[in-house]
Amino acid sequence: MWSRSDAPRIMIVRLSAIGDSILTLPVLNALRDHFPHARLSWLIADYCAPIVRGHESLDELVEVNRGWLKSPRTIKQVRRRLHDMRLDVTIDVQGLAKSALPAWLSGAKRRIGFSRADREGREFSTWLNNELVHPSALHVVDRNLGLLKPLGIDNPTVRFDVPEHPSEIKAASDFIESRTLRQGFVVLNINAAWLSKRWTMERFAQVAKYLADRYGLASVLPWGNEREREDAERVAAKVPSHAMVLPKFSLTQLGSLFRRARLFVGSDTGPLHLASAVGTRCIGLYGRAVDRSGVYGPQGIVICHNHTSSDDAMRRNKDNDAMRLISVDEVCQAC
Fold first, then answer.
1. Calpha distance 240→157 (Å, rounded)
2. Which CATH code fits 167-334?
């Protein structure tokens, strides 16, 4: 077992997605707190990398594209780089073949991962990781931190410490100033990739009107792609004096904007977990499976009426009937 004075070389493997990467940040901070001299790295998909890049607890970020495992040449390049890092330990937070494989390719003698239980340790990850931890905690943040027990880290302080850079602060501040939002605003994240995670646009519009009438707060609507932008414009058009569509913001710029919001309302998506991680008060709207990925921490409120658990493949193909069980009144009351 290492002591605080040792400098082990440890790599976290969490390739995707954005929300899950955010929820893995406490693992990075716990490692830094316990091993202040360690060399800490993270293997991550390039589209998720901005949320981790520049983190004060991180020494090296290894970015791969989504299709890297389909290219023998790229696999060799990644393997060579990981070998050159001379890793002592890998921590496979994702628990899939695509995350366990690079851990194994790295040559690290200790490869920590989940055992096959409760939707963890999936595919052949348990064949490639050689120190398996049974997932005992309920929430994914605490479950991830459980992977550190073989390293002598138990019940660490939970910190996210999402990086914030001057350019992102400026982008957020310029938007707030240009829209005269210095007295406060709310973020309504109306979009989600899966239909099963979407509340209705009409209900979001009603919440925006309530927030303006009751508290004098405007609602800001972020978006990530053209479909989401069009949906945000439809909601804003329903309540033109109460809601506005955000210009195109990067993920890290959104983090800076969320820090300055009075409240965030949205479903189980990356932006919700980002807002929670930067300390914004959040109301999370959940259709199903809230236990693992509910808003983490005391600043979060979860609204959910259907607690039926299902795997990601099933949820991806579900309709949004469970989300429709959430009423406008209960969201407004939670505000």
1. 43
2. 3.40.50.2000
